[in-house]
Structures are given as structure tokens and as C-alpha cells.
Amino acid sequence: MASVQDIGLSAAINLMSAFAFLFAFAMLRLQPVNDRVYFPKWYLKGIRGSPTRSRGIMNRFVNLDWTTYVKFLNWMPAALKMPEPELIEHAGLDSAVYIRIYLLGLKMFVPITLLAFGVLVPVNWTGETLENIDDLTFSNVDKLSISNVPPGSPRFWAHITMTYVFTFWTCYTLYMEYKAVANMRLRHLAAESRRPDQLTVLVRNVPPDPDESVNEHVEHFFCVNHPDHYLCHQIVYNANDLAKIVAQRKAMQNWLTYYENKYERKPTNRPTTKTGYGGFWGTTVDAIDFYTSKMEILAEQEAAEREKIMNDPKAIMPAAFVSFKSRWGTAVCAQTQQCHNPTIWLTEWAPEPRDVFWDNLAIPYVELSIRRLLTTTALFFLIFCFMIPIAFVQSLANLEGIQKVLPFLKPVIEMKTVKSVIQGFLPGIALKIFLIILPTILMTMSQIEGYTSLSYLDRRSAEKYFWFIIVNVFLGSIITGTAFQQLKSFLEQPPTEIPKTVGVSIPMKATFFITYIMVDGWAGIAAEILRVVPLVIFHLKNTFLVKTEQDRQQAMDPGHLDFATSEPRIQFYFLLGLVYAAVAPILLPFIIVFFAFSYVVFRHQVINVYNQKYESGARYWPDVHRRLIICLIISQLLMMGLLSTKKFAKVTALLLPQPILTFWFNRYCAGRFESAFSKFPLQVR
Amino acid sequence: MASVQDIGLSAAINLMSAFAFLFAFAMLRLQPVNDRVYFPKWYLKGIRGSPTRSRGIMNRFVNLDWTTYVKFLNWMPAALKMPEPELIEHAGLDSAVYIRIYLLGLKMFVPITLLAFGVLVPVNWTGETLENIDDLTFSNVDKLSISNVPPGSPRFWAHITMTYVFTFWTCYTLYMEYKAVANMRLRHLAAESRRPDQLTVLVRNVPPDPDESVNEHVEHFFCVNHPDHYLCHQIVYNANDLAKIVAQRKAMQNWLTYYENKYERKPTNRPTTKTGYGGFWGTTVDAIDFYTSKMEILAEQEAAEREKIMNDPKAIMPAAFVSFKSRWGTAVCAQTQQCHNPTIWLTEWAPEPRDVFWDNLAIPYVELSIRRLLTTTALFFLIFCFMIPIAFVQSLANLEGIQKVLPFLKPVIEMKTVKSVIQGFLPGIALKIFLIILPTILMTMSQIEGYTSLSYLDRRSAEKYFWFIIVNVFLGSIITGTAFQQLKSFLEQPPTEIPKTVGVSIPMKATFFITYIMVDGWAGIAAEILRVVPLVIFHLKNTFLVKTEQDRQQAMDPGHLDFATSEPRIQFYFLLGLVYAAVAPILLPFIIVFFAFSYVVFRHQVINVYNQKYESGARYWPDVHRRLIICLIISQLLMMGLLSTKKFAKVTALLLPQPILTFWFNRYCAGRFESAFSKFPLQVR
């Protein structure tokens, strides 16, 4: 077990490395050549122009003004300065509310930390249990935790009281935050200028009709059932071929622009190209003429394909976007059942145009139902059995296996350094690769489940990832062994034993999780702001591929807040904070540093870098809230388990109201606020 | 363990007693004097008149036509003859669909019984395990059950296959029934003539407004938000005092009619009465004059009270019934959220006027939320700890306790017969009394939860009673010990052990449950048709209290189908059938007899006796369906537990898809049909 000094040293090293990242970032961001990597949002907004033209040749690439280097941390106040309404205007409500999650972490844990250090740390410190045990090596860190309180001691009353205080405070901040976010969302919806998607309903599962086309059928249905409000509709076509032609034409247009620019700069000789693939072989022709003629051919193809799709009944999907004359009519149609068979004519608020996930618009109800059953089963196995295929791959990737399949590699493998590298890294790499592609797997599963908008897909993937983290990272770190072994032992244990088994191990793992927070949390955030991968890719692209201004625009990869993976990770820190608040308060300052640092970094990123793919109006908040409640209940159950092993079992029953009240609080909040995120009140038009 | 002969004898006795009941019923129902007890529905409909006037004095009371006695069972075909559409017309959809639950039992269990007797009984019978064990007393009944198959035998493949067949068949019948009932409901709603409640929405939680009265506030809100459809509204007054005056006036009117009739028959002397309570003392006055003047005073009081309520803002409740011009506008208002605060302006389809539970119309949202938390907690303790207060009462009611409190009873108590009666009956009586008042307790709990209609209250009480039966009757009979002890042992056992513990005991309890079905089921149904209590009460009232025709009308107690208590009891028989289908098929014929007998009896009762308090249009079906699914899943889990103890553990995993698929089937059905029971499609107007 690490001592306070060890942890202090580790913290110092991690802080230093985080500062090194920050310093590197501060240096790099000041170089004009990196401007598009660190401020892409302003370029996309058209506010910031390319600096490469206006300045001198040296100034174009390197910043020589030494005064800017002195104030290398001044991006932090700059990031905090923008007021929230402006931030919403600038980056959208999704991003602004996302940042509030970190702020919520601060609001929640700063008072909890003060209380825990004021009350629990003295109580634990003077417990004097560990000093009396000679054969155990203990450290000052453990003396700060609940382990130092003797079993059966009345000191546990302090812990019980404090868990109630913590629960109450957590619920209070959650309630205030839910209320604030709900109001922000309603203001946001009401203040927006009339956008088409606010007056549009997505209709799916239009039943086939023998006498009418989908187009006529939709029109007749809505003319009859919403006569006063129906405006028009747009049916959905399967236009994959058309999309290919359009993409081709765009590429040709880019080449044409490139050669036209070239010709403009040097009007003496017309540029030439070759007719083969990529312009590398074939007969040499005049480039501008060649691409102009190609463009014409593609334009004709496009028109023909468009014509074909419009007249081909097979290209029509049984879905449509129906527009209404008023928000009232739209709300009515989106929120009511259309037909007495509830599996056809399904209506919902149309997602934003950017938010639509087109592939899933035409899945029949029965298929949808089966798909959800299958993915739920698959998710269960993914969470509890994911180690099995990885162990299989690892067993294949051992030395004998490789020698057998590829005997000619034998002399190389038998070299000592190569051998140790393979033995040391290969098994780890299999796991690492799996963890990297895990979000993609989860997103694919959500897509198979058949949700119709990107925002919904993100929310569902986040839910899956959250459970994966809870089972495999949290429980997996506390109880060693694979999730499958845990599942088996849990099934064979009485349900009251599970919190005990987990709860007892918690105080012992405090130092492990402190290190985890520093390495994964602090360093991860610092790496986020440095944007190493986009930086390298941008410069590579800029050097080798960029031909026109449009290419440069595309080489810039602003990225976006990836809700599906980053939100469950934040939840994990909330969970750690709540679990350890009463057990080992020493962990709390590390959590607070994480939240504070993340808040500044992500505020900066949201303002200067990220370009969101869609705007859902913070519709994900009920999910965030629910998962926070789950974390809270987990922490309460584990506390009960821990206390019941401390010869304090009778009093532990006093903790029983906590999960019940928290569950009830969740129900209450859901009833009070959730509809603001799924429904649209008739009063607001 | 009982042999087949024992069970046969017991069945014969129970059948005989049931037939005795039926014979008694057949005799009694033919007597004209009992006509109002056995055919009250026809009286209430005004189709059947009082036979006492038209016939001779003897014929008025006793039926002397011997031919009618010969065909004493002919009420059975008569009950079955009425076609379903006519039955719906005559007794309402609620009753017609309720009877279908028994029919569903037949549809489900007749093929299952045939299959079980064709396949499983031969397999079990030739298992030859019990014959080889000498020290066990076994009977032919056990030879028919799964206990006779040797552990680890491949014969269990037959049981596994059959459980799949049974599951499939059960789900199929459930699906067809859900579909049929949903269609019946939709036809019923569409076919009904326009009733006011179909165009009315109940609005609750009208927020207080400082400037406007509730009346104006409601009017303005709906004029603004539903301008094209709003017709009018009726606010709800707290008129308890008025209701008392009206009741008083009704009683006076009855006395007046009585004396007027008396005077009519004997115009020579005017009837007199006394001014004191009940006419027993006080000064003698002319009765007709006295009651006429009383009526006038009350009419004045009534008008004054009415005036007072209309003008008193405190008497106005924050709820209103809002009527719309079209079903479309009503559907829109009932099914959409009105205000961005989802806890005010709550709208729902107005219940039928008879169905409204007035007391709960004005409960604020927060209070409602707390009430539900409290009743849920109370229900949990009621189910698991109900034996504790009863044991306490029983301990008080023992001999020493009585002697201590009432020492003068000592000589009486010490008499031997009295002693044995007290010791034998008192503890049982405490339990019996509790079980009799249990439905009332559950209904009170549902009322506290704050539902606004009688039908909803019935549905919620049924849900509570169902869980009480599952835990205390089903599990309580299989595992001896109180529910609280069970709960404790379940918490201390691994979750996989629970189905094993319960599953192993199941085959041993087959004869117990067969007896239960005969005593509680068969005899209970026969007692239902005899209507002993209403019969006795009617004759008592008719002899001593009835003064006018109106009194006689009221003395008739037609009763009603008590959904809250009788539906969970049917579910219990479904559960027994499903659990024992693959374990001990011998139980199935008894279940079939129960369902067939109940079907005939309740069809007769619904046609001739019951007068429903409200008509909800079979809105309870999703609950019935869900509970049947729960029974099915319980039976599957117990089968898994049973098989895993038969040295067949590996193959038991093959049963795992059953509960998962059943759960998915439930989700599918809910998505497919449930909205037909809670929403109202816009297409149907």
C-alpha cells in the first residue's frame, strides 16, 4: 500500500507531465501554421481567415512575437470568459450543457470534500485500529480511510450520518441541475427561429396500399386525419446510386478548380493531365477541357438517375417527412397515435436534417423487435464474456503458435529481444485493440437496434458503454478475475453477499483508483487539448494532398464532443467520487482536480475546436441524470455492504432508506422534468 | 402422499357437494319469492316486473309447476346460449371480456392436458424410480409425476421439449386473445353512440392564479391552447354538505311515498307519525303533512347550500372536466402535454361519470409522489410481514391472556369444550378475519395512491393482491414458513438456489394443490352461484325494512364482478396449471374442470345477476396479459430449478432461452397492442 509520500510523488509527476502537455500546447497553438488545428471552429464559422497570405514568409509559419509566449496559460481565462448565453449561441446547447456536467461535478464534490475532510478524516485518523495490528503493513493513506475505525465502534455513526448528508446534497444538486437544464432547453426551443424540423414529423412504417403509391397514401392519410394543419410532405428515396454520382462529380469539380487556379497563376501554358486513374498514366490531354467534359457527362448521369429514382416504386421507402402549418399541429401529430394498429403510421418529431440516420428509416416493426432482442443478448455476452475471444486470440498469438504457422520466422523469433517483445506486448495489444474498437462495436449494435437519429444512437451507445465500464472497469478492478467469473460467483452467492464482497475490497483499492484518476483522467485531458493526432494528420495532408482551398478546409478535422464514449467515462469519475466519499475521502481532491481541469479544457475545445455533427437541444440530460442516480445507488449499496462487515450490522439497516429514497427521487424528477426532453408542450408555440 | 383412489374419492365428495349447491340453486331460483335475488339484472333493466301482483297468493312465493324442477340444470345451456355481441350489449364489454379469461384458460389448458397425458404421463409412468426405493411410501399419483424419472435419465428430453411446446402454445393463445380483445375494444369504442365522456378530458392540477378564478383560468387556458376544439368546461366543487342534504331529502321522499301509498289504500284514516327519530317517540302529527313540510325545508336548504358552493372560492377544486367539439380535439388534448411544467395542467381521458373517484381529483403532484412511495413501502411490508401482527393478536388471544384481562370468565374458559374451541379456532379466526379484510386494505392503499377512477383503483388493487397471492399462497404453500422467513432465506441464498429450493418441493405438493383447487375453486364457484348472503339479506330486508317499491329495488343487491379480488385468484389457477403442466400433469384436469365450471357460472351471473359499477371497455386486459406472462416466467424458472437438481444441470441451460423469449414476447405484445388500451387513435373519430 502506497504512503502519502508515494501518492504525493506520483501526483507531482503526473502534474508535471500534464503541465508539459499544456506547455507544448501553448507553444504549438501560437504558431500560425497550426492555426487550423487549434482554432478550426472559427474557420468553419468563416470568422478567422487563412493567415498565410497576409504576413511575411517567416511569420506565416512561426510566431516570432515573444510577448505571446510569456503569457502561455492565458487561454484558460479566455476559455472561461465567454458567458453561457454566448457559448450556447456559438457552440450550441448540446456542447454548453455537456460542459455543465463537469461543473456539476465541482458543485457536487467541493462541499462533499470539505465536509469529508472536516468530519470523516479526523474520525478515521484517530481510529487507531491499524496501529494496533502489527503484522499488517499500513500507510498513512489507510489511516485516513474507514479501515482505521475499529469494528463495532460508535464512530461509524459519523459515517452513517455523512452518507445521508452526501446523498441529500447529491440529490439537491442533481435536482437543481435538472431544473436548470430543462429551462435552458425550453428557452432554447422557444427562442429558435422557425426551423423546418420544428414543423416536421417523421412518419415511419407507412403500410403498403394496393391502390395507391406511398406518396399518395401519405398525402391522403394526413389530409384526412390532420386536415387543418397538414402542409406538405417529402417521401424518402433510396438514392445510394445518386449519392455516388454526386460524390464523383464533387471530386471532378475539385480537380477542375485546381487546374483552373494553376492556369490562372501561369496563363502562359495550359495544364495537362493523363486520362488514366489518378492522372498517372494514359494519353495526355488538356486538363481543363478533360474535366469540363467529364463534369458534363456526370451531370447528365445524375439527371438520369434522379429521374429514374423518382419513377421507380422500389426506390421509395415506407417513410416520409410531413410538414405542418403550425408548431401546434406538429406537436399534435408527433405526440399522438395515428392508427388503431400502433405498429404502423408511427410518428415522431423529425430529427434535424443533419441528425437523421437514413439507413434505419424503413425497418418493419417485427424486425425491429427481433433486432432489439438480439442486440440485448449480444450486449450481455459482450459485457460478461468479452475476455473469452480475447484470451483465444492471445493464445493463438503466442510464440509456438506463430512458429507453427509461419516457420520461416523461427530465427527472428528466437532472438532474445524479439521474443520478449512478443511475449510482453502481444497479449496486451489484443486487449488494447479491442478496447479501442469497443465504441465502434457498441455504435454498430445501436445502429442494428434501428434508431433513426444520430443523437439517439449516441445516447444508446453511451448507455451500453456505461454498463461495460461499471462491470469491467469498476467491478473488474475491485474484484480481480474476469467479468464472467464474477457473474458466476455472483449467481452462486446470496444477493446480500454481493455488496459485502465488493464493499470490503473498496478501501484497499483507494490508491489504485487515485493512480487511475491521475493517469487516465489528468493526462488524458491534457492529451485531449494537445490534439496530437489531428495535428500530425493535418500537416501530412497539407503537405501532400491539399490542392485547393476546399481541400484545406477538409484537411482540417475539428472533431466533435463524442458523447457516446466520453460521457460514460465522466460517469465513472462520479461513481468513484460517490463511492469513496465516505470510505476514503483522500480520493476526493483528485476527482475535483479532474473536474476542474476538464471543465477548462473542454470549454476551450468547445469554443475553439469542436464542430458538432448535430444539435439535439441537450436531449441527453435525462440519461445523464439517470446514470448519476445509478452511481449514487451503487455507492449506497456498497456502503451498506462495507458497514455490515464491521460488526455494525444492525445499524446498517438504517442505511436501507437511502437507496429507496434515491429511487423515489429519480421517479419524482422523471415525472417533473423528463417530458421537457421528449415532449413538446402545446402551450409553447 | 395420497393415492389416485384417495384423490378420486376426494374429487367425488367435492363434486357431490358442488352438485348439492347447484341443486339448491336450481330449486331456489325457481321460487318467485327469490326472483329478485337471482335475476336482479333484469329488474334493473326494467325488463322483468315484480311477479307478486299478477299471480295467486301461493304462486307468489312458491313455484308449484313440477315440470320446471325436472329440468333443473337447464340454466346452463341458457347461460351459454346468448351470443357474444348480445352479451356485450346486455352486460357491457368489461363483463364479456372478463368471462373470456375463463375461456382463455380452457383454450390454453385443454391442448396442454391432451399433450401432457399423451406424452409425459407414459414417460413418467415407466420411469420406475420410485418402485426401486423401498423406504419411501409412494403412490400412483407420484408415479405419474416427474419424480418417477431417474436422475440423469434421457427421458428428461421429453420434459424439455414439452416445456417449449407449452410455452409456445401459451404465448400463441395469449397473442390471439390480446388481438381479439384489442379489436373488441376498438369496435366497442367506435360503435358507441357519442357519450359525453368521449368528448371530455379531465384536467387536474390547475395552477392557482392570483388574478383569475379557477373557472376563468381554465376557460382562458383552453381558449388559447385549443381554440378550434374547445367547447365548454365544468369545474369540480367540493359539495359534501350538499350531498348530505340531498341524501336526507331522498329519505324523506321515501317516507312520504310510503305514507301516501298507505293513505291511498285506506283513504278512511290519514296516517300519523311521531316527530322524534325514526318516528318512535315525540308528539303525534299527520304524517303526510309532516313529511311534506320537511321536504320543503330541505329543498330551501339545498338551494342555499348550492348557492353558497357556487360562490365560495374555497369549495372549488383545482380540477375540471373540459368538453371538446370533436373526438379529434379530445384525443389531442388528452394525449399531449399542455404546459412546459409537466406537473400542472395534467390532462387525461375523463372516466365515465360513474367511474370517477371524486376524492382523488385534487391531490398536488408532490403529495401524490410521496403517497406512492409510502404505499409501495407499506405494500412490501404487508406482503412479507403480514404474519407478524397476526401472530401478535394470536398470542394475545390465548387462554392465559383472556383469563388475565377478564378474570370473571375463568370458570367458563376452563370448561373442556370451550377451551378446545378457543384453542382451535381463535388463532385461525384472526388469520381469517385478516384475509377477509385484505381486499379492503389493498383498495384503501390504492385510494391513498391517488388514482382518479374506480376502474384504475380496481386494476391497482388487483396487482397488489396478485403479488400477495404469489408470495403468501403459492410460495407459502410450497415452502413452509412465513413469507418473512422466506424473504430472509432468499436474501441469504444465491439467486440460482431459489428456483432449485422451490422447484424441488413442487412435485411433492401436487396432491395438496389438487385438494385446494377442489375446495377453494369448485366449491367456491358453486357458492358464488347460490348467493347465500344476498339471499338471506334480501329476505331479511324485504320482511323488516321494505316500505316502498324503491326500497325493494334497493334491497336487491345484484353485486358486481369484483375485478380487484377475483382476477388475481384466476391468475393463481393459471399459475398452478402452468407450473404443474410438465411436472405433474394429473393436476391439469382439475384446472380444466375449474375453468369450464367457472365459465358457465360467471356467464350466468353476468347475464342474470351482476350490475357493473362502471364500464371501462376492457381496459384491464394489458394487466391480465402481463400477469399471465409473469406466471409463465415463474413456471419456466421453477422448471429450470427442478431439472437442475436431477443430475441434468448442463442441459438445463437449454431452458434459459424460454424466460428471455417470453419476456421479449411480452415487450412485443405491449408494443403491438397496449396503446389500444391507453390511447385513442386519431384515425378513429
From TrEMBL, chains A, B:
<dbReference type="GO" id="GO:0005886">
    <property type="term" value="C:plasma membrane"/>
</dbReference>
<dbReference type="InterPro" id="IPR027815">
    <property type="entry name" value="CSC1/OSCA1-like_cyt"/>
</dbReference>
<keyword id="KW-0813">Transport</keyword>
<keyword id="KW-0407">Ion channel</keyword>
<protein>
    <recommendedName>
        <fullName>CSC1-like protein At4g02900</fullName>
    </recommendedName>
</protein>
<dbReference type="Pfam" id="PF14703">
    <property type="entry name" value="PHM7_cyt"/>
</dbReference>
<feature type="domain" description="CSC1/OSCA1-like cytosolic">
    <location>
        <begin position="199"/>
        <end position="360"/>
    </location>
</feature>
<keyword id="KW-0406">Ion transport</keyword>
<feature type="domain" description="CSC1/OSCA1-like N-terminal transmembrane">
    <location>
        <begin position="8"/>
        <end position="177"/>
    </location>
</feature>
<feature type="transmembrane region" description="Helical">
    <location>
        <begin position="12"/>
        <end position="30"/>
    </location>
</feature>
<comment type="similarity">
    <text>Belongs to the CSC1 (TC 1.A.17) family.</text>
</comment>
<feature type="transmembrane region" description="Helical">
    <location>
        <begin position="624"/>
        <end position="643"/>
    </location>
</feature>
<feature type="transmembrane region" description="Helical">
    <location>
        <begin position="425"/>
        <end position="444"/>
    </location>
</feature>
<dbReference type="InterPro" id="IPR045122">
    <property type="entry name" value="Csc1-like"/>
</dbReference>
<dbReference type="Pfam" id="PF13967">
    <property type="entry name" value="RSN1_TM"/>
</dbReference>
<feature type="domain" description="CSC1/OSCA1-like 7TM region">
    <location>
        <begin position="371"/>
        <end position="643"/>
    </location>
</feature>
<feature type="transmembrane region" description="Helical">
    <location>
        <begin position="378"/>
        <end position="397"/>
    </location>
</feature>
<dbReference type="Pfam" id="PF02714">
    <property type="entry name" value="RSN1_7TM"/>
</dbReference>
<feature type="transmembrane region" description="Helical">
    <location>
        <begin position="513"/>
        <end position="538"/>
    </location>
</feature>
<keyword id="KW-0106">Calcium</keyword>
<feature type="transmembrane region" description="Helical">
    <location>
        <begin position="101"/>
        <end position="121"/>
    </location>
</feature>
<keyword id="KW-0472">Membrane</keyword>
<dbReference type="InterPro" id="IPR032880">
    <property type="entry name" value="CSC1/OSCA1-like_N"/>
</dbReference>
<dbReference type="InterPro" id="IPR003864">
    <property type="entry name" value="CSC1/OSCA1-like_7TM"/>
</dbReference>
<dbReference type="GO" id="GO:0005227">
    <property type="term" value="F:calcium-activated cation channel activity"/>
</dbReference>
<feature type="transmembrane region" description="Helical">
    <location>
        <begin position="465"/>
        <end position="484"/>
    </location>
</feature>
<keyword id="KW-0812">Transmembrane</keyword>
<feature type="transmembrane region" description="Helical">
    <location>
        <begin position="572"/>
        <end position="602"/>
    </location>
</feature>
<feature type="transmembrane region" description="Helical">
    <location>
        <begin position="156"/>
        <end position="175"/>
    </location>
</feature>
<keyword id="KW-1133">Transmembrane helix</keyword>
